[in-house]
Write a structure and sequence with these properties.
Elements: E1 17-20, H1 35-50, H2 58-66, H3 69-78, E2 84-87, E3 90-94, H4 102-112, E4 116-120, H5 127-140, E5 152-156, H6 162-170, E6 173-177, H7 180-187, E7 196-200, E8 204-210, H8 211-216, H9 219-233, E9 244-250, H10 253-274, H11 279-294, E10 300-306, E11 310-315, E12 331-337, E13 351-357, H12 361-370, E14 378-381, E15 391-392, E16 395-396, H13 397-400, E17 402-405
Helix pairs in contact: 1-2, 1-5, 9-10
């Protein structure tokens, strides 16, 4: 494959800027979980966890904790299918613009699968991106990891740039993170015939809590639960595809009403202390509420307010297009039911993550698998919605981004 040469910015601002790495030499795939790659990611983890600026960034610390040595070894063991594997070769990643640290996870997935990676990072400047690039750049300059620089190119350029078509035409794999429009636009650009593509488009996530379990929880457990819900939602302003927008309360109406109040009462001081909402966001949230109230067809029972931090829309029924019930800046929808089976007709392939509390795993398995749902790829306890991993959106990314060598 020809060397990938950097293209200088033109006067119009087009063309990629290479933030880390300036060319890729001959692509030689490695085995998944290559020892040198594991060493690089483990050292990146250690340095990010000690980095003064990075320590104040929860999402960067989440990434650093994920790629610590112990977890990488656990992932290696979990993906050992006793088959000979190599990476696909060159993989092109398009990171989303609304989740700053996603680019680092995508790069890590590509490296762990044994690939050379070109990653398009978000176009706008983000402190989290700058910190990771700085630490990673220092590591790749060291003798122990210098050879891995050939496997990494992190670039920034405007949407629609010809570089996307150029690199797609050469890639053995393409990973697209973004909304439906982003996926549709990039999919117009051809890949080589045998290239693989993984797309992460618009998804919808929700939460289920058992009312009786909520009321039975002691203060300590309730505090942990509220903290976990805060992390799932407010850290990303509910923008992450795995952040819940709807809270389903399982239980009798009166029981659920008491449980709801107990939960939101406990969450409010956490939000008040940690989430200073800008005035413009508060106005946007109120606007969303007014628009929804004005178009209500009788489904809204109550709109509840916990200062300016939390607003909930209590519903008597759920719409067929359930995934349109979205909130931001602390706006949530609520619905009470005695049985999860009531949700079955409403769940489609756009549903990604179900977070839960007080629900038995066997019941969740019967709900998702027993009903043959086309959506819900993840069911995780509240507090783990944003925990990215090599299993995501129903894909095993290590196996998808590597190939089996059939040796007989």
């Amino acid at each position: 494959m020809p060397m990938l040469q950097p293209v200088e910015h033109s006067e119009s601002g087009s063309g990629p800027i290479f933030l880390l790495g300036n060319e890729l030499g001959q692509v030689r795939p490695r085995v998944p979980f290559d020892a040198q790659v594991l060493g690089l990611l483990a050292e990146l983890s250690a340095r990010l966890r000690k980095h003064a600026e990075a320590r104040s960034m929860p999402d960067v610390q989440t990434f650093a904790f994920w790629c610590r040595k112990a977890n990488l070894q656990k992932l290696k063991a979990a993906h050992d299918d006793h088959k000979a594997r190599l990476g696909l070769g060159l993989v092109f990643h398009v990171a989303p613009g609304n989740v700053p640290i996603n680019f680092a996870f995508s790069l890590a997935f590509g490296l762990l699968a044994g690939n050379t990676n070109v990653v398009r990072v978000p176009s706008r400047q983000m402190a989290q991106v700058d910190v990771v690039l700085s630490v990673l750049g220092d590591l790749l300059a060291e003798p122990d990891f210098a050879s891995l620089a050939e496997m990494i190119a992190l670039v920034r350029y405007p949407a629609g740039d010809a570089f996307t078509a150029d690199i797609s035409a050469r890639a053995n794999g393409r990973v697209i993170w973004g909304g439906d429009e982003t996926v549709a636009e990039i999919r117009k650009l051809p890949l080589p015939p045998r290239a693989r593509e993984v797309t992460f488009a618009d998804r919808y996530s929700f939460c289920v809590m058992d009312a009786a379990a909520m009321l039975a929880a002691d203060d300590k457990a309730l505090g942990r639960l509220a903290e976990g819900f805060y992390n799932d939602t407010y850290l990303m302003d509910q923008n992450a595809c795995s952040s819940p927008h709807l809270v389903v309360w399982k239980g009798a109406g009166k029981l659920a009403s008491v449980a709801r109040k107990r939960f939101w009462d406990r969450l409010q001081p956490i939000v008040g202390d940690r989430y200073p909402i800008p005035a413009v966001n508060a106005v946007d949230k109120y606007t969303d509420l007014l628009v929804e109230a004005a178009s209500d067809d009788g489904a809204i029972l109550n709109i509840n307010r916990w200062r300016n931090d939390i607003h909930t829309v209590e519903l008597s029924c759920l719409p067929d297009d359930l995934e349109t019930l979205r909130g931001r800046f602390g706006l949530f929808h609520e619905f009470t039911t005695m049985a999860l089976s009531d949700l079955v007709p409403l769940i489609n392939g756009r549903f990604q993550t179900l977070t839960y509390y007080g629900i038995d795993k066997a019941e969740l398995q019967d709900f998702i698998i027993g009903n043959g749902l086309t959506g819900i790829d993840r069911a995780v306890p509240i507090g783990q919605a944003l925990d990215m991993d090599t299993l995501w959106d129903g894909y095993d990314l290590i196996h998808t981004l590597s190939r089996i060598i059939d040796l007989r």
